[in-house]
Design a protein that fits this description.
The chain is of the alpha+beta class. The protein is 65% helix and 10% strand. Strands 2-3-1-6-7 form a 5-stranded mixed sheet, with helices on both faces. A two-stranded antiparallel ribbon has the order 4-5.
């Protein structure tokens, strides 16, 4: 749950939102409201990073820009997937409505037929007339049964279609928060994963730490061996991170060669041990060149660690871990540093 502001705080955000939103031409849609709310509440750093340059350049946020910001940074599904899902649901409802309407007409016709046959039975019928009535009743009953079978079949097909749509929605959600190259979380997925730690008092009391990692001299690797090998290095580092994680730990690729690791219920000493295991595993790992298959050494990572401080938020924690990462780079790289150290 990312909207955790209390009534007073959300009211203040609303007041600021109304002041800002009227200055731009975009319609007052729920998407527009959500974009401004998350930006002003400071709960979506990626969105704010995209909006700030636009606002500083005094760009007019029209419907197209807002829709792009909403789809990319707020919605959990891409706009193409949303359109596809809406289309699928409309088609499904149309089929159900048509089939239900046919069954309803058949039920009304069958009801009228039963009334007619009932009235006929009140008269004096000879054996031939009674046989004809029974045959007509059997035929009408068969038609009604067929109509119900068709409706039942359509309902079963609709159930399967709903299950398929549910799977597509879940798949879209996973894709929206996953880095396609490495399979770890992307920045948005990381923010969604981390947010409950700041809003729930229990994990905050237990403490947690954040690691920020950067592949050392990655540009030189790309320049020397090419981007395909660079991607291989990124995937190798991601796999190393996965092998060192457990339980509720979360890994994300938040930049080209930069990763974040969230360690719930982990004190600073434990986080340092984890970081050193990661650093040493990357340093000792061997990645082979795709052409010659020769092992290439010299791949390492620099790591910065920051512990959670009560009352803090994710952007602040990431900033502190980034500063610790800078210390590792400044001191020669392939090192682990803790925020506040030298």
């Amino acid at each position: 749950m990312k909207y955790t502001q209390e009534t007073a705080a959300s009211g203040e955000i609303l007041r600021l939102l109304l002041q800002k939103i009227v200055l731009h031409p975009a319609a007052f849609t729920p998407a527009n409201y959500a974009v401004w709310y998350e930006h002003l509440a400071g709960i979506n750093p990626a969105l704010s990073a995209a909006m700030n340059p636009l606002l500083e350049s005094r760009a007019a946020l029209d419907n197209e820009i807002i829709e792009r910001l909403y789809s990319q940074y707020v919605s959990e599904c891409s706009s193409d997937m949303q359109q596809k899902l809406r289309g699928g649901i409309r088609q499904l409802l149309g089929k159900l409505a048509e089939c239900t309407s046919d069954a309803s007409r058949e039920a009304r016709r069958f009801g009228s037929s039963l009334l007619s046959h009932g009235k006929a039975l009140q008269g004096n019928l000879d054996s031939d007339e009674l046989l004809a009535l029974i045959n007509n009743l059997a035929g009408d009953t068969g038609k009604m049964h067929g109509s119900m079978r068709t409706l039942e079949s359509q309902l079963e097909a609709s159930k399967l279609e709903v299950e398929k749509l549910n799977k597509e929605i879940e798949s879209a959600r996973v894709e929206a928060v996953t880095d396609p190259l490495t399979g770890v979380l992307n920045r948005r997925g990381f923010e969604l994963k981390a947010q409950p730690l700041f809003s729930d008092p229990e994990p905050a009391q237990k403490g947690f730490c954040l690691l920020m990692l950067d592949i050392d001299h990655f540009k030189k690797v790309n320049d020397a061996y090419g981007h395909l090998f660079g991607d291989k290095v990124i995937c190798a580092v991601a796999n190393t991170l996965k092998s060192k994680m457990k339980g509720q730990d979360a890994i994300a690729r938040i930049g080209g060669e930069e990763f974040a690791v969230l360690l719930p219920e982990t004190k600073l000493e434990g986080a340092f041990v984890v970081a050193e295991h990661i650093r040493q595993a990357v340093e000792n790992g061997k990645i082979r060149h795709q052409n010659s298959n020769d092992p290439i050494g010299g791949i390492s990572v620099s790591i910065g660690i920051a512990p959670y401080t009560p009352g803090g938020n994710l952007p602040e924690l990431m900033d502190r871990a980034d500063k610790a990462l800078f210390i590792s780079k400044h001191n020669g790289r392939n090192k682990t540093s803790i925020f506040g150290s030298r």
